[in-house]
What does this fold into?
Amino acid sequence: MPSELRICSRCVYDTTIPEIVFDDEGVCQFCRIHDEMEKQYPSGPEAARRLAALVSSIKARGRGKDYDCVVGVSGGVDSTYTLYQAVRLGLKPLAVHCDNGWNSEIAVHNIENATNRLGVDLYTHVLDWEDFKKLQISFLKASVSDAEIPTDMAIHAVLHRAAAAEGVRDILIGHSFRTEGIVPKSWTYFEGTYIKSVHKRFSGSAKTSVPVLSLPALFYYMALRRIQVSPFLNYFDYDKKAAGEELAREVGWEDYGGHHHESLYTKFFQSFLLPKKFGIDKRKLSFSARIRSGRMTREEALRILRDEPYPLNMDIVEYTMEKLDLTMADFDAIMATPVRSFQDYPTLYPYMRALRGPIHLGFKLGIVPKILYYKYIY
It folds into this structure.
């Protein structure tokens, strides 16, 4: 590692993250956010009590309906375990999958096996491939490290639409800050105006059939339909390896060979594009989360990080370019384009920063969702 690189004294986040700051103890703000999250989602007996209360509330809100919650499924371990635990706890979930055209065969089989064995109905929303392909190409040309957010946004939009259509007020997502960590804004900025502005710049039109959640849509779903999103795994003593082994026994789940590699585009994005073009090693994200949670030592993480993030694999690059109808010359041009940030494009971020005071107050009062606060304000 370069000698001038400064690393957090508690985790392995470092000054390759542009917005990182350290306190007098050399601890980064992301560790402090983790500590705040620990207060909101305590572990141990209190977690079990809060989980039981959440499940009871979901059952009450869904009484008399075919489903009492919507669970997003991708075929990955996190989402499959969320669905598995929802059923085990007596909930009546509707499994919802957003198919963006990049599913691996293992991911498809995992979804089929889990829903069949658990007796859960599955709704799959298939994105228009030509529209989605154009949106992905726009983000590759934009030269930003946020190239996965069209998928992320579509997933959240599809989940909210499905919940509203079924009259369901609860969405469960397979996320745990103890294993997934706190994502820096400079790595992934998530917002509908940004998606549309990038698409307009590089395709000539902001119009797309790919679902995008605007702020008015969020207001409709959250305030009028009173739909709430719960990061379900925050209530569990969640260990990915142990969860995968349990799912293999109970629902025939299979490992797909890498962190979030159930999607072939994610495999290209995280194993090649991020480290080679942007110098972003996503291992730091999960390693830091595990260090903060006492599941890994900082020394062990630093030792592993000395190795190259991923083996050079041009096969996945060639596959991705061919699927996007791009040439390897197009790929070379993408790699050669200077790195840009979400702040180089029109977004709502300046307005959100201007409203920092009211948003902070709303967060403290429980009005502003945690995800909105941490994404725009911290």
User: Anything to note?
Assistant: Residues 201 and 341 are 14 Å apart (CA to CA).
